[in-house]
Structure to design on (225 residues):
């Protein structure tokens, strides 16, 4: 009887036999997440541009009314009708941008996990990956911005922060106009406008922070750095 070489057990990935279909499955899922992330970023840009377009149109309309009738009662009436609508669009845009950033983070987590699976299939490819294959906060930031941490300028330049600041300014202007319509003086209008803007910025910032904290509070990475 001829000697038969021993059959080595197949390598496994999370308890599954690794063969060619697994790589195809992972790649298909990766492309799906990439497409979804592309749509998410498209929505972020689209919603931001829509809000800024509406805001610009509102400012132009207010300027035309002011040039035609001055800053009298007609101007105040028009502003008190148009600005709340613009603010409503801005608040909705801010909330959606927060949600979109959270969704984008989850998509990055998914792609990092897939890269971890790629490296289990082919560990020799690790030197060629510039993005992370870990799903902890450090790995997410590495994939997102190619850094282990980001500074204040990165957060301040984010779309939700920019839109939130604009919303705060709109609320301040609206508060000043309401005070003017009620007969308040220049000093009172200024104080009301500034306080309303600051309060709005604090409320929106607190909401965004709590929303992100609620999502990440119970998150545990599967493949930490």
């Amino acid at each position: 009887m001829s000697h038969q070489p021993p059959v080595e057990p197949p390598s496994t990935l999370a308890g599954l036999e690794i063969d060619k279909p697994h790589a195809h499955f992972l790649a298909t899922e990766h492309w799906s997440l990439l497409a979804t992330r592309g749509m998410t970023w498209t929505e972020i840009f689209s919603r931001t541009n829509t809000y800024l377009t509406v805001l610009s149109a509102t400012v132009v309309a207010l300027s035309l009314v002011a040039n035609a009738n001055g800053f009298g009662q007609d101007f105040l009436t028009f502003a008190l009708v148009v600005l709340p609508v613009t603010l409503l669009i801005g608040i909705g845009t801010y909330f959606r941008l927060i949600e979109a950033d959270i969704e984008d983070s989850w998509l990055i987590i998914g792609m990092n996990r897939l890269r971890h699976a790629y490296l289990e299939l082919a560990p020799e490819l690790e030197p060629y990956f510039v993005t992370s294959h870990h799903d902890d906060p450090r790995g997410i930031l590495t994939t997102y911005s190619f850094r282990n941490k980001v500074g204040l300028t990165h957060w301040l330049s984010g779309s939700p922060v920019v839109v939130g600041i604009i919303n705060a300014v709109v609320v301040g202007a609206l508060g000043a106009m309401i005070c003017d319509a009620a007969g308040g003086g220049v000093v009172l209008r200024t104080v009301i406008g500034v306080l309303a803007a600051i309060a709005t910025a604090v409320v929106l910032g607190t909401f965004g922070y709590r929303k992100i904290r609620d999502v990440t509070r119970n998150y545990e990475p599967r493949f930490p750095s």
